[in-house]
Inverse folding.
């Protein structure tokens, strides 16, 4: 159980890390990174 939780936690951290890198890259390229309605989770 604990191992599974650790794996899930690290996968989440890795995903957030990748997302943060993507946002930084977009900001550097001058792209507006505000989340608009068609990007929301409850589409």
């Amino acid at each position: 159980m604990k191992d599974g939780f650790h794996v899930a936690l690290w996968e989440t951290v890795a995903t957030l890390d990748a997302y943060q890198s993507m946002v930084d890259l977009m900001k550097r390229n001058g792209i507006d990174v505000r989340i608009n309605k068609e990007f929301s989770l409850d589409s």
Notes: The first helix runs from residue 2 to 28. The radius of gyration is 14 Å. The chain has one domain: 2-39.
